[in-house]
Amino acid sequence: MAYNNAILNNVYNYYMTTYSPKTSTRYDTHKKSELRSIYNSIVKLNKDAPLYKMDTSKASKSFAVGIKEDARELRNVIASLGGLDEEKILNKKASFSSNEDIVSVNYIGNNPDNSEIPTYEIEVYSLASGQVNMGTFLPNTKPALPPDTYSFDVLINDLNYEFQYNIREGETNRDIHERLTKLVNSAEIGLHADVIEDGKGNTSIRLRSVSEGMKNNDTPLFIISDEHTSKQPGSVAYFGLDYLARPASNAEFSLNGERMASASNRFTIDKMFDVTLKGISSMEGSKTTFGLKTDVESLAENISTLTGGYNSFINSMAAYRDNFSGSQKLLREMNGIINRYRSELDVIGLNLQENGTLEIDTNELKQAALSQYAKEDFSSVRNFANSLVRKMNQISINPMDYVDKTIVAYKNPGKNFPSPYITSAYSGMLFNFYC
Q: For the whole model, what pTM was predicted?
C-alpha cells in the first residue's frame, strides 16, 4: 500500500508541475449535477467509440494532457468574466485604481446590476512587513566555535522546529553561513534566509518571515534559540541569529477618512473589492481613488481578456501543428467557430488574423460600445464565448479525439455497451510514465 501511495504521489506531482503550473480556481469545482452530466457524457462517448490503437510515445501523451489543460484554462478565463450562464457571460464588472503603484484592486462582488457600488478613497501610511533577524557580520575565517554537531530551535506559527548541522575542520564562517541558509530555505517553514555581505568581505545571515503583520500582543513571528536544544548550543549567540533587526508591522491606511490597520497588504472590503497595497502615498492628504469602471469600460476589458485567452489557446495549439495532425483538426474546428461569427465580430473591432488569432481595434470597439445598437452588436461576442465554452467542455471530456491513432474495429451498431476504454486510456498515460 505504501508503495502504491508513493507512485500515486509521484504521478500527481509530475502532473501538477508539468501540465498544470497555474493554481486552481473556483471554476474547477463542480456541483453534483455537473459531475453527473460529465459522467453521462463519458458513458455515451464510450458506448459509441470504436476500438483503436494509440500512439503511446511520451510526446503523444504530453500532447493529449496539454490540450486538455489548455482547454480548461480558456474555459476558466471565460468563466471568470461573469460565470458560465449564457445570459451573464462577459458581464463581469471591472474595477479601476487611480494609482496602480499605490493600490491595485479587483472586483469580487456579485451585486445585481441595479445596485450602487460606492467609490472609495484610500491613503496609505505604511505597508505591512514581516520580521527580520540580522546576524553578526563575521570575517571569512575559521569560526570561533570548535568542530562539533550544533543545533538550534525555531518557534514559528506556534510550532517548534530543530535544525542540526555540523561545523567541520577547515570550514570558514562564510561556508557555514551558506550551508545554514540552504538548510533553512529547504525546510520551507515560513522563513527565508540569505547571506548578506558588508563590502569588506564580512558576511551575515538575514532571516525574514514569509508572513506579514503583527500577532496578538506584539509577539514576534519567529523566535530562535538554542537554550533547550538537543545538540551543542552556542551557535545562535555566535552567529547572532536571535537579533531582532526589524519587528513585524501592520499596514496602516485611511479608507474614506477612517483610520484602519491590516496585518496583510492584501485584504477585502465589504466583500466587493480585493485590495492589494503596493506603495505608500507620496504626501499627506494624497489619496488614491478606486471603484467600478463604467459598463462600457468593463465590457471592453472583458472582451480584451477573452481575446487574450483565445489567442493563447490558438498559439498553444499551433505549436503542436508540425508534430500532431490532431492539432490541425482542432485548429480547423476553432476556425469554423470563429468564421460563424466573423462578420459580427468585425463590427465591434475584433479582426481575425491570418494565423487564426484575434486582434482588437480599440477605436472600433469603443464606437461600437457607444452605439445605439450596442446591445445587439455585442450579443454576437457573447454567443461566440458560449460556443467556445461548449467546445472547451468537449475537448476536456475527450482529448483523445485529437491524438494520433489507428482504428482497429467499429462497434456493432445498436448492440454496443458502455465501456471505460477511452477514459482508461487517457488516465493510464499518466501512470504509464512511472509504472
A: 0.64
